């Protein structure tokens, strides 16, 4: 089963800066999770529960970092969404805040003033964008323009393939709606 | 046609928002649907089902491990769209134990070799997340190729994967390291950023092996204006400087430049952190860093305030002045809204404490503790307690003040640190003779405080207060009131073991009073009736108070109560008699004197390894065979078999019987008489190990030198006999009382265990660092060859690096490398030690030193 390996939350050796990314709405609904370190499904749910409890209850004037189980969680609220990233003690909190902001800006550029609904309905897009921003928990692309270009290139790839594959069924689907 | 009626992910998400079924039943219905669809042969249907499943797993925590094989099927599709869904599912759900993991190698290889760069990117991303040792080994050639790709998009992603590959399969370092180093010289900022990221992690694991690359890093540190890259470089140099302190001098200057130049707070903070943690000897840099910290502290931004405090606490051990300069800001931060900020401020304040300001800071903190929430309040209390008691109350001069502070803490409403306060009250009583009168005063105040009895967190404090009052009763102002406090009815709120201590203290007070009564009578011949009255009153109060407890359920309480009552019963008559006839030596008088003697022996602190220090008395043979004992005992044992056996006889009988049986067993099973007793001892030790005190060198023979330490209590009393040591003070108006401090000698033990764990962790990373080092050697060699070929670009570089390498040095290196090659594989341990020695000799170019 999934729970066999490493029952605790600590991993043998660190090979990435960011351990996970979490997007939680103000109501505590999870909007995106991305795990760069090995957690079982059970641990994931536990982490989400624990952290969203702490973060949602923090007042607006407090700092954006929390010390949590020997790690640091950097979070920032944008409109109704909390963006959280978990890093090691020695990592640079402000840098992570910048990465979060960077991600939000790219999302904003991609969706055109992004809102929570965009992320709900296009949750996979939010993932793909994150994958262009971070690889293995490290920032890999600091240019917003480049990320936008890469994402749209891949979108076109998908669209082209889709049209080619299911143009007929698309038409039928449209007609039967 | 399946495809037509399948719900898409969007349908699922929309449906979820409109559903009235309740989350869990909606999800289970959706899962049913997915399980059906995912079995379809059509890859579109399958991939859509998988996509929906990934969504449910990511957002709703649904288990998707059962779909592992389906994910593999989807990945094998030729369409990018499917592949992307498949890879996303795999990165999300696969782990080292996933059974189908073995089947993915070929698919990954195929995609890594794809002409479509986006497919390559998917495969790389996947490898970076799920790579196992096998995958890393099998795919490292592909990764190596991609590290040299002409497309920067691919090269960048390949760089990101390298860490995972190195981590799982250290041999890959040999293959890939050179390309990685080459990428350090790239002009592409994205690739540079990725490579520096990799080296940052490598350096944090094993700084020594990255040391030879210091010139390359230095160049980037000076030239780069990319904050992300610079932050990583600072981290690298902070690690490198820890193994090569001379680097600090070189990098301090450019770091200061960045600190002055940049407006990016993240970079400033990283510079500050690097300086205060790794370059703390470079005065100018530290001054600049502290100035920057001050800027952070005065900002309104809570993030900067927090980080400023954090940086101060890193600086505190070596540059306390930096903290003292910012004392105001620190104290202000104690009342911050943010618990993190408060906590940092508290730690800093504690770092500032010295014997001159301890009372001032404690007063400030006690005021905050009264106002704070329970969590922070107790954090304050425990910090004060631990700082003040550090190293046998090193910073405390005025113990009267400190003891009163302990009493004050007990009265803070949220206080939950009863046990620590208990420990210190007793500890001070034993160690600091001069503090005892005040200790008794404070204890008395605690005992009569009604609030404390009702708070179970504070019961330990009452236990200490009652013990102190009994033990040092000679300082009590009014024994009668003390007894009243100790037997007050509300003490039934206390747990039995503390009540037992109360009763025992009553006993001590009683003995003390009676003794002074009797001795007063002896000397002054004929006492006033008021004294008689008061002693009778005291006895009566005790009798009334303790009497109900003689039927207590708890045996400890009961026994002690009965002891007291029995003693009173005996003494009462004599007290009455004494008034009338001035007789010599009444029974009670003698017993009281005896009891007082028993209580009067001073209790001192006991060192944690006191047992080691107890020397074996002359003539005691620990190793001797006690076989003769059987004969001797045998004589005594015979008459015991008669009927008139007293209780105590029975016990001796059974004990000696036991011993004989043990010996018989031992002698029948083994035949080594001389070591018999010691083997029995060893066995006992083995069986009842937990009752033995742990000690590393408890056997005086093992280290060759006889143990000549005096027994712990002797040591204590020796120090106690010595009154105020005049050498110590002079500085203070009020001299510091003697604090008994034993040479604990525990430190060495701690350090050895630390060293051990350190060593263990070193061996963990050893294979990786070994490979990096050998790769670096290969790299150097490669560079030399390129130089011969006349590569003009590299000549400059080579000159830089080789300038320091004195001829014999480089020769040595080559030789070493040869050795390494020859012994590889077979003689692991030998090779390891060689690498270790080579790592000590890693050279840094002169230009950096």
Please give a structural write-up.
The complex is a heterodimer of chains A (177) and B (849). Chain A is an alpha+beta fold. Chain A has one domain: Beta-Lactamase. Chain A has 5 helices and 7 strands, in the order ββαβββαααββα. A 5-stranded antiparallel sheet of chain A has the order 2-1-5-4-3, with helices on both faces. A two-stranded antiparallel ribbon of chain A has the order 6-7. Chain A is globular and about 55 Å long. The N and C termini of chain A lie far apart (42 Å). The N terminus of chain A is likely disordered. Chain B is an all-alpha fold. Helices cover 70% and strands 0% of the residues of chain B. The radius of gyration of chain B is 39 Å and the shape is elongated. The chains are: A alpha+beta (177), B mainly alpha (849). At the A-B interface, strand 2, helix 1, strand 3, helix 2 and helix 4 of A face helix 2, helix 4, helix 6, helix 8 and helix 10 of B. Chain A: This is AP complex subunit sigma. Chain A: Keywords: Cytoplasmic vesicle, Golgi apparatus, Membrane, Protein transport, Transport. Chain A: Belongs to the adaptor complexes small subunit family.
Helices and strands in order:
The complex is a heterodimer of chains A (177) and B (849).
Chain A: E1 18-25, E2 30-35, H1 41-56, E3 65-68, E4 71-78, E5 81-88, H2 93-111, H3 116-121, H4 123-133, E6 134-135, E7 138-139, H5 144-176
Antiparallel strand pairs in A: 1-2, 1-5, 3-4, 4-5, 6-7
Helix pairs in contact in A: 2-5, 4-5
Chain B: H1 2-5, H2 9-18, H3 23-37, H4 43-60, H5 68-75, H6 80-93, H7 105-112, H8 117-130, H9 133-147, H10 152-168, H11 172-183, H12 189-205, H13 207-210, H14 214-223, H15 227-243, H16 247-261, H17 265-278, H18 283-298, H19 302-315, H20 320-325, H21 327-333, H22 339-352, H23 358-371, H24 374-393, H25 399-410, H26 418-431, H27 436-447, H28 450-453, H29 459-471, H30 479-486, H31 496-524, H32 529-546, H33 555-580, H34 587-600, H35 610-613, H36 628-640, H37 647-669, H38 676-687, H39 712-721, H40 747-788, H41 792-802, H42 807-823, H43 828-840
Helix pairs in contact in B: 3-4, 4-5, 4-6, 5-6, 6-8, 7-8, 7-9, 8-10, 9-10, 9-11, 10-11, 10-12, 11-40, 12-15, 14-15, 15-16, 15-17, 16-17, 16-18, 17-18, 17-19, 18-19, 19-22, 21-22, 22-24, 23-24, 25-26, 25-27, 26-29, 27-29, 29-31, 30-31, 30-32, 31-32, 31-33, 31-34, 32-33, 33-34, 36-37, 40-41, ...
Domain AP complex mu/sigma subunit (chain A): 17-156
Membrane topology (chain A): Peripheral membrane protein
GO cellular component, one term (chain A): AP-1 adaptor complex
């Amino acid at each position: 089963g999934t729970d066999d390996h490493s029952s605790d939350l600590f991993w043998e050796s660190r090979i990435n800066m960011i351990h996970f990314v979490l997007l939680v709405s103000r109501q505590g609904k999870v909007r995106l999770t991305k795990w760069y370190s090995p957690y079982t499904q059970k641990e994931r749910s536990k982490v989400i529960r624990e952290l969203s409890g702490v973060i949602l209850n923090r007042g607006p004037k407090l700092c954006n970092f929390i010390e949590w189980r020997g790690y640091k969680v950097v979070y920032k609220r944008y409109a109704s969404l909390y963006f959280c990233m978990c890093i090691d003690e020695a990592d640079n909190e402000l840098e992570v805040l910048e990465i979060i902001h960077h991600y939000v800006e790219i999302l904003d550029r991609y969706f055109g003033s992004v809102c929570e609904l965009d992320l709900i309905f296009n949750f996979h897009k939010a993932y793909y964008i994150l994958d262009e921003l971070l690889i293995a928990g490290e920032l890999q692309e600091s240019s917003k323009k480049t990320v936008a270009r890469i994402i749209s290139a891949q979108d076109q790839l998908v669209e082209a393939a889709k049209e080619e594959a299911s143009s007929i069924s698309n038409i039928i689907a449209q007609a039967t709606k | 046609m399946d495809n037509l009626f399948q719900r898409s992910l969007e349908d699922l998400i929309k449906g979820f928002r409109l559903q009235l079924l309740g989350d869990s039943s909606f999800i289970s219905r959706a899962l049913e649907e997915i399980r059906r669809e995912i079995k379809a042969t059509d890859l579109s249907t399958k991939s859509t089902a998988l996509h929906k499943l990934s969504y449910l797993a990511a957002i709703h925590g649904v288990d998707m491990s059962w779909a592992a094989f389906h994910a593999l099927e989807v990945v094998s599709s030729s369409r990018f769209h499917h592949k992307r869904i498949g890879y996303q599912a795999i990165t999300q759900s696969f782990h080292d134990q996933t059974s189908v993991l073995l089947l993915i190698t070929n698919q990954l290889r195929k995609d890594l070799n794809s002409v479509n760069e986006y497919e390559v990117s998917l495969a790389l991303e996947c490898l970076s997340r799920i790579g196992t040792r096998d995958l890393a080994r099998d795919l490292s050639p592909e990764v190596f190729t991609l590290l040299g790709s002409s497309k920067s998009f691919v090269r960048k992603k390949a760089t990101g994967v390298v860490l995972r590959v190195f981590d799982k399969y250290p041999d890959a370092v040999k293959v890939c390291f050179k390309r990685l180093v080459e990428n350090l010289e790239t002009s592409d900022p994205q690739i540079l950023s990725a490579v520096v990221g990799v080296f940052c992690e490598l350096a944090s694991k094993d700084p020594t092996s990255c040391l030879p690359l210091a010139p390359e890093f230095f160049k980037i540190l000076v030239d780069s204006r990319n904050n992300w890259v610079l932050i990583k470089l600072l981290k690298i140099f902070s690690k490198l400087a820890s193994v090569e302190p001379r680097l600090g001098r070189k990098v301090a200057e450019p770091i200061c430049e960045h600190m002055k130049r940049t407006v990016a707070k993240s970079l400033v903070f990283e510079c500050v952190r690097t300086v205060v943690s790794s370059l703390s000897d470079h005065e100018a840099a530290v001054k600049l860093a502290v100035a920057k910290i001050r800027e952070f502290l005065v900002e309104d931004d809570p993030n900067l305030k927090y980080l400023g405090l954090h940086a101060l606490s890193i600086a505190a051990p070596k540059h306390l002045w930096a903290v003292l300069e910012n004392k105001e800001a620190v104290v202000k931060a104690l009342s911050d809204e943010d618990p993190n900020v408060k906590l940092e401020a508290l730690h800093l304040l504690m770092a500032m404490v010295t014997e001159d300001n301890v009372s001032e800071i404690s007063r400030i903190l006690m005021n905050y503790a009264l106002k704070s929430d329970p969590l922070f309040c107790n954090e304050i209390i425990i910090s004060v307690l631990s700082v003040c008691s550090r190293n046998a109350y090193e910073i405390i001069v005025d113990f009267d003040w400190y003891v009163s502070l302990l009493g004050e803490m007990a009265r803070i409403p949220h206080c939950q640190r009863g046990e620590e306060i208990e420990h210190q009250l007793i500890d001070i009583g034993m160690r600091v003779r001069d503090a005892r009168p005040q200790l008794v005063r404070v204890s008395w105040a605690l005992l009569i405080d009604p609030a404390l009895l009702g708070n179970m967190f504070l019961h330990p404090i009452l236990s200490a207060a009652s013990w102190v009052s009994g033990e040092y009763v000679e300082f009590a102002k009014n024994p009668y009131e003390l007894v009243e406090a100790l037997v007050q009815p509300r003490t039934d709120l206390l747990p039995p073991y503390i009540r037992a201590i109360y009763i025992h203290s009553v006993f001590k007070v009683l003995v003390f009073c009676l003794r002074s009564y009797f001795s007063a009578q002896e000397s002054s011949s004929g006492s006033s009736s008021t004294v008689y009255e008061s002693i009778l009153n005291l006895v009566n109060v005790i009798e009334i108070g303790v009497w109900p407890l003689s039927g207590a359920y708890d045996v400890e309480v009961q026994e002690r109560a009965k002891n007291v009552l029995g003693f009173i019963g005996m003494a009462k008559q004599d007290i009455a008699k004494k008034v009338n006839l001035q007789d010599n030596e009444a029974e009670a008088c003698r017993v009281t004197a005896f009891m007082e003697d028993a209580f009067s022996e001073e209790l001192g602190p006991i060192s944690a390894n006191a047992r080691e220090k107890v020397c074996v008395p002359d003539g005691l043979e620990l190793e001797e065979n006690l076989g003769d004992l059987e004969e001797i005992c045998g004589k005594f044992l015979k008459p015991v078999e008669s009927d008139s056996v007293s209780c105590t006889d029975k016990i001796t009988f059974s004990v000696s019987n036991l011993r004989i049986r043990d010996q018989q067993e031992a002698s029948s099973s083994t035949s080594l008489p001389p070591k018999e007793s010691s083997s029995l001892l060893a066995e006992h030790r083995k069986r009842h190990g937990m009752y033995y005190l742990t000690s590393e060198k408890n056997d005086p023979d093992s280290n060759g030198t006889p143990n000549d330490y005096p027994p712990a209590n002797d040591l204590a009393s020796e120090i106690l006999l010595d009154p105020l040591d005049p050498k110590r003070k002079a500085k203070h108006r009020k001299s510091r009382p003697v604090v008994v401090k034993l040479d604990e000698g525990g430190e060495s033990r701690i350090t050895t265990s630390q060293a051990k764990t350190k060593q263990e962790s070193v061996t963990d990373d050893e294979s990786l660092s070994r490979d990096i080092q050998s790769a670096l050697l290969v790299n150097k060699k490669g560079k030399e060859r390129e130089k011969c070929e006349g590569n003009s670009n590299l000549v400059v570089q080579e000159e830089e690096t080789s300038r320091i390498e004195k001829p014999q040095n480089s020769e040595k290196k080559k030789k070493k490398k040869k050795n390494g090659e020859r012994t590889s594989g077979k003689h692991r341990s030998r090779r390891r030690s060689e690498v270790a020695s080579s790592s000590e000799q890693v050279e840094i170019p002169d230009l950096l030193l």
